[in-house]
Design a protein that fits this description.
The complex is a heterodimer. By secondary structure, chain A is mainly β. Chain A contains no helices and eleven strands. In chain A, the strands form two sheets. In chain A, strands 2, 4, 5, 6, 9, 10 and 11 form a seven-stranded mixed β-sheet that branches. Chain A has a four-stranded antiparallel β-sheet with strand order 1-3-8-7, with no helix packed on it. Chain A starts with a strand and ends with a strand. By secondary structure, chain B is mainly β. In chain B, the strands form three sheets. In chain B, strands 2, 5, 6, 10, 11 and 12 form a six-stranded mixed β-sheet that branches. A four-stranded antiparallel β-sheet of chain B has the order 3-9-8-7, with no helix packed on it. Chain B has a two-stranded antiparallel ribbon with strand order 1-4. The chains are: A mainly beta, B mainly beta. At the A-B interface, strand 5, strand 9 and strand 10 of A face strand 5 and strand 6 of B.
């Protein structure tokens, strides 16, 4: 079983809604990630938090807003999304960002549908 | 720039057959890290292995084995005596030492094991 927990598993939202995706890890990892994955494509990096600070933003539209309340939690706030934002959103974590032994572990993902 | 190529888009095998998934990578870095992930239909990306560029030993884990060949920039993955539970999309990925937390994924190979 994954040690990166994501909620909700499935989310359907309208284009005017505000919702959030949540992620939690209890492995003591110091980096957390959001990836977006469209059907039949590899995951695409969106954001990276390292030691609770945003370290990478891959030019993601502002309708996606990440938040890292503490080292174990990561949220992705969603507002005014478009149907093309429908995808699998994967949260991930890694132990020691920037070190040789760093490996990224993923959660089960949140399937998002924008209607 | 980094690149990971998984030329096999889809592979079908009959249960108990052996199957090899190919991965070819490109990087200018002398130190880098290679990964394989498994993604079943449920969505979670499951970490399988990390291989460091300075460690060319091949590895075997149960029915899984990995063949790392620096000379041909390949990191192939073999499943012996395949089972239906092996059906999934498999991603090969690369991270350069200087690449901080950015991982480059291949496009994935969908493996279907037919009973």
């Amino acid at each position: 079983d994954t040690e990166v927990t994501q909620t909700p598993k499935h989310l359907v939202m309208g284009m005017t809604n505000k919702k959030s995706l949540k992620c939690e890890q209890h492995m003591g990892h110091r980096a957390m990630y959001w990836y977006k994955q469209k059907a039949k494509k590899p995951p695409e990096l969106m954001f990276v938090y390292s030691y609770e600070k945003l370290s990478i933003n891959e030019s993601v539209p502002s309708r996606f807003s990440p938040e890292c309340p503490n080292s174990s939690l990561l949220n992705l706030h969603l507002h005014a999304l478009q149907p093309e934002d429908s995808a699998l959103y994967l949260c991930a974590s890694s132990q020691a960002p920037g070190t040789r032994q760093d490996t990224i572990y993923f959660g089960e993902g949140s399937w998002l549908t924008v209607v | 720039a980094q690149k990971v190529t998984q030329a096999q888009t889809e592979i079908s095998v009959v249960e108990k057959e052996d199957v090899t998934l190919d991965c070819v990578y490109e990087t200018r870095d002398t130190t880098y890290y290679l990964f394989w992930y498994k993604q079943p239909p449920s969505g979670e990306l499951v970490f399988l292995i990390r291989r460091n560029s300075f460690d060319e030993q091949n590895e075997i884990s149960g029915r899984y084995s990995w063949n790392f060949q620096k000379s041909t920039s390949s990191f192939n993955f073999t499943i012996t005596a395949s089972q239906v539970v092996d059906s999934a999309v498999y991603f090969c990925a690369l991270r350069a030492e200087g690449g901080y937390q950015k991982v480059t994924f291949g496009t994935g190979t969908k493996l279907q094991v037919i009973p």
